[in-house]
Amino acid sequence: MGWQYTIPGYLIVFGGLAIYIAFTLRRGKRLAEQLPPERRRFLD
After folding, report:
1. 42 pLDDT exceeds 70?
2. SS3 of 40, please?
3. Is the model's pLDDT at 41 over the cut of 80?
4. Which of 20, 22, 40 minimizes the C-alpha distance to 31?
5. Which DSSP string do the residues of 25-39 spell out, in sequence order?
6. Residue 9: CA count within 13 A, CB half-sphere
7. Per-domain boundaries in the chain
8. Are 32 and 40 in contact (CB under 8 A)?
9. How large is the greatest C-alpha to C-alpha distance in the chain, in angstroms?
């Protein structure tokens, strides 16, 4: 009986994390493209 709540709970949590990770990576890429090449220390 508890599985009816457990599985959707896990799906909501991990789905939310996946959406947050995708949003953060996309935003980071967009912000990194705005930096001039000489300020991109993480590419060295």
Report:
1. no
2. coil
3. no
4. 40
5. HHHHHHHHHHS-GGG
6. 5
7. 3-32
8. yes
9. 59
Torsion of Cα atoms, 17 then 18 then 23 then 24, to 10°: 60
**Amino acid symbol at 29:** K
d(CA 23, CA 16): 11
Q: What letters, b where the CB count within 10 A reaches 16 and e where it falls short, cover 32-42?
A: eeeeeeeeeee
Better-predicted residue by pLDDT, 41 or 14: 14
Residue whose structure tokens are 């996309």 = 26
Single-letter amino acid, residue 17: L
Phi, psi (degrees; rounded to nearest 5) at 35 = -75, 145
The gap between the terminal CA atoms of the chain, to the nearest Å, is 54
